[in-house]
Structures
1.
Amino acid sequence: MSIQPIQDPGLPTHVHRKADTDAVAAKRAERQVAILFLTSAVGTLLFIFAYVGIPQEQLIFLPLLGTTNAHQLFLGLGLAIALFFIGMGAVHWAKTLMPDHEVVDYRKEQRSKDEDREAFLSTVKEEGAAAGLGRRTLIKRTLGLSLGLVGLSPLLLLGDLGPLPGEELNETNWRGGTRLLTDPALRPIRPADLEVGAVAQVLPELPAGRKRTLNDIAKDALLLIRIRPEEFNLDAERLSWTYEGIIAFSKICSHMGCAVALYEQSTKHLLCPCHQSTFDVTRAAEVIFGPAARPLPQLPITVDA
Amino acid sequence: MKARERAAGAVANYIDERTGAAKWMKKTLTKVFPDHWSFMLGEIVMYSFIILLLSGTFLTFWFDPSMREVEYEGSYEPLEGVHMSAAYASALHISFDVRGGLLMRQIHHWAALIFLAAMVAHLLRVFFTGAFRKPREMNWIIGVGLLTLGIVEGFLGYSLPDDLLSGTGIRIAEAIMQAIPVVGSYISYFVFGGAFPGELFIPRIYVAHVLLIPGIFLALITAHLMLVWYQKHTQYPGPGRTERNVVGYPLLPVYMAKAGGFFFIVFGFTAFLGAVAQINPIWVYGPYTPAQIGAGSQPDWYMGWLDGLVRMAPPIETHAFGFTISWNILIPGLIVPGIIFTLMALYPFIESWITGDKREHHLLERPRNNPNRTAIGAMSLTFILVTLINGGNDLLATHFDLSINQIMWFSRIGVFVLPPIAFVVTKRICIALQRADREMVLHGKESGRLVMLPHGEFIEVHTPLSPEKAYTLTQHEQLPPLTAPESDQRGVALPRGIRNRIRARWSAAASEQVAKPTVDELKEIEHH
């Protein structure tokens, strides 16, 4: 410890509170604590009243809160009052009436005394030597081996947590000739259903009897967007994938898989609400902003009949 | 009275004869706890945990953690007949058809937000006052573990209702798993039991959320508190407070009444929030389907910084040997958070290596008296704040009519530029405050009273500080920087020369400070 420029004056002298010396003040504090506890009891009564007396679907209009469910609100307020004022009462009691003398306790260093440490060490050494821990390497190694191996078994048992991906992640239900169905009505979509500037979400038609799961939708969801054909800025191949200004992109963001659901008609940008990756519809969904590194996949579409 | 005393005595006797508890209890009931408002932050964490256990248990009585498809037929009419998972339907049932169910759901969610907020506040208190120093490094590491687990637990919790927002969060979690090079898609398939979303993740995260993680929590919190108990609480410096004592109130009755009362206050406050402040209105979002999303999708605040990091990442991917490495997800989603939490856990050891201080510390430091540490804290906070701002860039853009692109670029640049600025500014402020303390000790407080001297000069009268105040401002230690000999007397370079040099430079930076008044200086002032 360095020398202090100012000596420690020691604990400040204890100052009595009013309730310590004045019997009237003490009585007042006692009454205050009692009132706080009583307020809590009133809160519980409100809680019981709300549970029994206010119908569950009762709505109520309150300034600031707007229209809200009265049952839940008064249950909550009753509970809040009941709990909060028990706490306030206890704290007020402690602060005004319980002894407020600060007391001093002493610390000792965490470290054990030297003789304890030595005794511990010699015990370990003696007992270890008696058991032959230092010598019997064959036992130690085989034990290590078997412990290590048995530790593998839980890992092995977890093997059936899931299948291997295989080719599943590379495929969707879109094939050549698959018809585009509207979502959620699931009827084939026509070009006439989509005006210029409109967007539609479509799903592939599945073979008869195959039930559509969320897993299918998580890969298949497709956006159809119609703009004026002259607004496209595509190469010949990509242009041939469109039909009369209708272009189809995967709705699943190439970044983290969110649904790319925000289409800005004036700028013809698609925006992913998760991380704001922005794709230019006129240029085959090229990324123009945000963290996505790849364009949205474009699906070639045409009209069958 | 007599009969009651006799009965109580009989019970106590019965227990003590079998456990010998009286001896231990006698010591325990007089255990001393220092008093300070900032010591209540950790208490809030513990009380929120209890509230979470209570309200969470209530929710499990009705929640059905299953992804079985059902048709909704509860009392919330807008969703009548909609197909959804049993999990979502049961969460709606709790919200609309169980008396007090919505209240409990909201209390549970608010308690989780408070739990993590208080944990962060507690961590900052421990960091800025140096409470993590020897012998408390182990407790710091347990704390970092609790924070990490808390973030995961919170995320799993708001993923359970299987509404549109929570499903979107799970989709992002899937993408982060898949971004792990080579094995990512395998890990994701193991977690989800196949392709996303599958039908297994709700029951799986349910077990993790209600059993696995709370169990680990309980064990770690117990260890955390046992260490606090055994090592005795730290205390703020002041008159009568030393490294060898602990000054405060005894457990019985004052601390018990205050801490017990505070539990009810925290619970009451949480219940109030649950009653009046709507949180996570899942019925508005609708059931999850991968093809839909709500605009302004936001994670809870403790995940916001992570989301902000992911949002600001530049679009970089590598395609090699048939593998895709998505740096734009890998770096912000896994590498940077990994580095942050590792550095956080190691900080006590880094600091003691730099200062060479291996002694026990039980007196807390005022943040200004350790400018380097305070500046490091401010720097880290600034980093997190910028990422958090970027995590809400869409909401900021719509609420304040800003361009989302500009906020993104502000964050991309700011995340590198602002933290160092915060470091320098904070360090200067700390040193300026030290100077102010020194002035105050030497010359007293400005009284605001102007006096004209006989020869016409005006002076302001300074009132000297009380000895208590003066002691509090001067009791701290000022460690000299470590010096690193690079070579021995004959000029031969020592091994580890570079390591020593780095250490000496950091140590010099860490010990930059305004010297506190010396005994001589004080004597000289008294002379005047």
2.
Amino acid sequence: MIGAIKQAWANFRGFDLTGSTVPPMDGPLRPNAKLDAAPVLLDLADVDNLALWGQEVLCSVGCEIHTLAQTAGEDGQGLSISRSRGMGKPVTSMAAGADLLAVAVEGEGIRIESRDGASSELIVPEALDARCVTAMAFADRSTLLVAVGSDRNPARDWKRDLMTRTAAGSVWRIEIGSRTAVPIASGLAFPSGIIMSKDRVFVSEAWRHRVLSMGIDGSRQQIALGSLPVYPGRIAPASEGGFWLAMFAPRNPLVEFVLKEDEYRRRMIETIDPDYWIAPSLVTGRSFLEPIQGGARKKLNMLKPWSPTWSTGLVVRCDKDMAMMRNYQSRADGDVHGVTSLCEADGRLLVAAKGSGKIVAIHELAGHIA
Amino acid sequence: MASSDTFAYLRSRYLPDHLIGEILSKRWIDNAIPFSALVLTILVLGSVIPDFLSLSSLTDLARQFAEFGLVVLAMTVVMISGGIDLSVASVFSLAVLFSLIGVNVYDLPIPAVLAGILAMGMCCGAINGVLVGYLRLRAFLTTLVSLIIFRSIYEIVFVMMSTSMMSGFSMSDLWLFIGEGTVLGVPTSLAITLVIALAWHLVLSRMRPGWRLTAVGGARRSAFNAGIDVRFMVFLTYVASSTMCALAGFLFAARLGSTGSDTGVGLEVQALTAAVLGGTAIGGGRGSVAKAIIGSLLVLMLTNGLINLGISGPVTSTILGAILLAAVFVDMRWQKHRHRILAKVYVSPAYLSLPPAPKVDAPGSPYVLNDRLRSVEIIGLGQIEGPEDVILDRDDNLYCGTRHGDIVRFFGPDHERSEVFAHIGGHPLGMAFDRNGNLLVCIGGMGLFQVAPDRAVTKLTDETNRSWTSVVDDSRLRLADDVDVAPDGRIYFSEATIRYEQEDWATDALESRPSGRMICYDPRTGKTHTEIPKLVFANGVTMCPDGQSFMFAESWTCSISRYWFDGPKKGKTERVISSLPGYPDNINRSSDGNYWLALLGMRGPALDLAMRMPGFRKRMARRVAPDQWLYPNINTGCVVKFNEKGEILDNLWDLGGRNHPMITSMREHKGWLYLGGVSNNRIGRYKLPDADPDWCAQDAYWGPRP
């Protein structure tokens, strides 16, 4: 009854009540194809968790951690795998401190390793569910901040977490020496990125498409960057100050609509394979069983760059207060989709696109692309 | 889950909510609001005022309506042409005055008086028409001035002649008959008005002068550019308007027999109110006789009713003014939002439950993923856009349609050179050759056409029989899709959907209603009739070798069926394939007696689930922009070969859609398979390894060249 009156008033005044709209990509998020133009350093399927530890660039693929080294290829900028070691179970997150490397292994816990390889201890905090550690960051030499995406789904089931509208994520502060873990925030909708800056902790809350900032003890929680048209992911520090923010999937009006349609969502989750859901994705077009939207139909053999898409590639450069400055994008017809991790190394930004399975490099000289 | 599905199925089948959208898209829906207001007024006044609907008061109302209706009709005609005529009131009163002078004072014969009054009306209208039409003065100001001038003439003459008018009277029977007589029970003046109204309705809606009038009002500059003599049309409307007002004045004089100093005062405001209440737009381009009639009935009934209730004159005017304000407001909102409302309400999804999709690439499945179509040779890359179907003649020339309305011929055997074989219009879709080598082509948006070998284009048919139960006018052909010819020359073609036009065909997928049909055109008699109604997006058609049946595809149900049009099984339909992994498009014969089928898109589980939830699709159609709707995945297509029993014999894919993302048709010719797609910009040519290298479809079906 109230709904009918509200709908009648909205019709009379001419505004829209549906709530399935997505903010436009404008201003600092203005579309471009810079990620597609960036040179590809390495093709590596499922590459994730780029980290710079000392002078080494590390990444993880599945259960293995690879060390990447520069190869002198034709353009002298390529990367290749120089060393690999297996962790037994899938690696969900890595963080590199000054001399410690934290590796979150699904089902086991958080493994802390030191530089010389001497000690490697496994922290298994009691209350912390290590199935879904999505991001970690060192606050200082002995404190590790851990973002746990969800209590109910492992990290690789993030799609299920979104489509069931779960908000069971939490942020923990771990004292490495005493191996204690203190929760500093809970009830978050999939925290997927975390970084410490001065006295503030920035946390990307993916399903609420915003970045929060809070104190080291979880107090003074505020929205640092809100109303994003994409789901924010991992955050990496920029050497010139500020941050690099990776967005792993775009918001889609149809997905927003399906999130409100409980019966269809329930039947879709129960009967269909997650790869073929109406849901954001790290990459599109792998199978013809995926759903497509009207604007994503190819006309004259071309896919329009602005067509609706389940996946995109987006890296945003933010300042020290997490305000967006500029972006590097791969649009619907591009092939650098699903950016999940970044790290700066040797004066350039390495971007790992897990969806498309490649690492590209962005060179910036005082804000210009080289 | 099953019970909610059953409920969805029953609701979708028995609650015809697609009718709402179809009714809203009719041309006469604009009259619905004033018409309901009229009905409401009649009901309210009929119940409040005793004897409001009695015969005597209705007769009186009818006579009043005869005069007032003519004036409103005059005003409406001028408004349709984009102008306004405020002088209707004074022309009316002048006509009353001079009729009475002619009849009462000078005792002239009635027909002469009528002729004189009509001539006077034409002169007044000509004055207005010259000023507004030829000298391009502003209509409002000009007719206001002529209103005042004609009124002044009335005042002057009235004062001079009033006593002689009052003392004279007429003995003429004709005068009495016009004023108080009836024709077949209908008052004479009403009969005259109804005849004139009917004539105007025919002119405005079905004849060229009326269309030109509406064009002048709707888009004056475009009408001028189209060659319409705008100034003459405007002149004519003013002449017609004043003539009708003069006739109305004549009828008024016959009824009342006298006139006063306030006759016709305020009539222009009343007529304007009635015209706008009925729904005629002041800016021009929109209006009709029905609107004028509804508006004048509304105003008359309200005025009479309010007077009957004892409400004084000024208060009645105030009430009428308030109603006019409300009417203008509602009309404005309706005009502004009509298209939006229609766009939202028109899409009415239905329940469709498909059998589970066959698993492609599973062990034992006849569908095997491959990349064989990746390596096709390309013909006409970038030269053609939208070749939905391709066909080859005996000389190896390739014909295809393009979205620009051309049929393009690529010269064999290398197909490098091309020329426009014929330009027809629309978007040519399915093609076939008949016995004499004429190219039959279904044009999306136009109908069934034929191109003779000497390139002469003739229209075979663009309409079929109208079914009684359809609100949509299904005698028109909106989307003729594929065609094939029976051995005796009868042409069978499919119409994909009666609810959507050529550019919107994919929205029919969202609906999945049985809105398609199979139509038969018989060139021997020139008659067209619907052979099989109520198919879900009837698409490909091809004749079976027995000459008595054809295979046809229904796209959204992913099925192929066979229909017998002759022989012992005449009229039967049988399912040949019930569950394809994708949506079938065109079917054509192969060299080994089997059939090639193009799948224009592949089924996906998300859309299959949505097909069983029509409420979900309806809400999606209303709340999400059309660009974002869930659609069949036409970015991947494939070609399938099947036999008469429905067994799958072969399939060809281009996974990833590099060369051929969507395939709507394929044609085998001399060992090659030619591929076409309705959103592609190329034709593909694939070498069939085991096919007969001399097989030509035309020779195989019709026999060798005569």
